[in-house]
Amino acid sequence: MPRLTDRTVAKVGAVRVGEVNRWWEIGGAAxxxxxxxxxxxxxxxxxxVHGEADLVSWFEPASVLDAGCGTGRVAIELDRRGIDVVxxxxxxxxxxxxxxxxxxxxxxxxxxxDVEITAPGAADGRRQFDLIVLAGNxxxxxxxxxxxxxxxxxxxxxxPGGRLVSGFRLGLSPLTFHDYDRFAEDAGLTLEYRWTTWxxxxxxxxxxxxxxxxxxxxx
Length: 219
Fold this sequence. Notes:
The protein is 34% helix and 21% strand. The chain is an alpha/beta fold. A seven-stranded mixed β-sheet has the order 3-2-1-4-5-7-6. α4 (51-58) packs across α5 (73-80) and α7 packs across α8 (177-186).
């Protein structure tokens, strides 16, 4: 199966989350249909484009929050696989594209630093997920200085034993893997895995990593 590598992710870009200018400055202000067309061309060339969904599915979560979902590529594939998924993004155009493709999936407009996914009857009214995925370089496209707040807010939306999965490449922002691990630790999460690709290849010390942090079971 072809790999979804850091080079592929970097070429396609990432969804805009947090500060609008970060997306415009680094990723380019592509409309949702243009963004999707890049993935369609890759798929037509025989490249596998569901590496993130494969990894998420490997953990067998019942519920997933796709944080920084963009046009819904990952969330829609997870929904197709029978997983209860919610997508959140700050880009209204991307969300409109996602909603047009999968109207039954809940698409939420919000900033990852403070978005609240609600659930009637839940503790504090906040929904908790088995897994939250930050795919497509989301963490290096957010407003610089908000990374810790984003990780903390994602941790609040994890149920006991829940996992936060992110993939990002160094060099697009000041964020380092050490910083990210520290933010996760401050939010009460423990480092569980770090891989070089979404195919779970051992981390080689390079500039791209897929990292999994976990919330303790007994919280």
